[in-house]
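Reviewers of the previous submission asked for a worked example of the structure-prediction workflow described in the proposal, so we include one complete record here. The input consisted solely of the amino acid sequence. No template or homolog information was supplied to the procedure at any stage.
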Amino acid sequence: MKKKWILIFVISLFAGIFVSCKSKQKAEKEIVIAVIPKVDNAIFDQVKVSAQQAAKELGIVLTWEAPSSVESKKQEELIDNLIHYKVDGILISCNDAVNIKSSINKALAAGIKVATFDSDVPTSGRIFYIGTDNKKAGKVCAQTMLNLYEQMNKKPDQVVILSGGMGANNMLERISGFRSVMNEKNIVGILNSFEMPDYGKEILTYTLNKNKKINGVQFMWGVPVLNGIDSIPTLSKLLDNKGVSVFFDVSKPVLRYIKNHSNCATIKQDFHAMGYDGVKNLFNAIKGEPFKDEILYDVKVIDYNNAEEELKNL
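From that input alone, the workflow returned the following C-alpha cells.
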C-alpha cells in the first residue's frame, strides 16, 4: 500500500510539472509582428533594418512581408495570410487608402493589432499611424521650390509633379499640401508613376520633351532619381538650363548632385524612426501597455548648404 501511494505521488508530481511547463510555454509564446511595405525597394530598406533592430531588443519575431507589386490586391492577400497564421501585430504602409480598409478591419476583427506607417488609412480602425506629417511635408516642398526660384531670380511658370501611387494617402496629402502653397495656375500636371521607377522616368521624360515651358519638377516620390539624376537625361538638361527641382528622400547620388547644384534640393524623411518606433509602439499595444495613437515626424530640407554634411552621415 505504501508503494502504491508513493507511485501516485510521483505521477501527480510529474503531471503537475508537465502542466506547469505547458502553461509556461503558452505564457511565453513569442510575439510575432509582420511589417508590410508598399513594395520592396531602397526606400524601405531603412525601415526594415530599424524594425529588425527593435524586434531584437524586444525579443520578438519580426517578419518582413513585401508585396510583389503595388496592386492593393497583393497587400490584401498578405493580410489574409497573416490572419491565417495568427500573427500578433501588423505594421503596414498602404498602397491604397480605400481598398486596404476592409482588410485592415478584418485583421482587427481577428484580434490582430494593426497600425500604419508611411502611408495611412485614417478611415480604417487601425490603432495608430506613425510617419511623416505628409500634408506639412507637401507645404515644405512648395516653399522650398519657391525659395529656389527666388535664388535663381526666376518665377514658377510651369511646374509638374511626379507622384507615386494614385490612391496612396501619403501622396494625396503631399500634393494637397503643395497645392495649398503653390499657385494652382503654375501647376501644369500631376504624373502618376504607380510606384514603378522606370515608368516614372518614362512619363517624366515624355512630359518634359512635350512641354518645353516646364521649368520646375516636384517629386512627391523620389525613387526614380535615387540612383542618380543623370538617369533621367531630360531632367538633367532642365537643371542645366537653370530649371529647379525638389526631390523626395535621400541617397548618395542625389546628395552628391545637390551639393554641386544650388537650383535643387531634397526632402528627408525619418524612415529609421518609422521602423524602430513603429515596432516598439505596436509591441506596447499588443502587450496591453500604453501606446501613442499617432506619431508624426517633420521632414528636413537638404540643399547645397548642408548636402555635404548629410552625405558624410549617410
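The first strand starts at residue 32 and ends at 36. We consider this example representative of the routine output the project will generate in years two and three.
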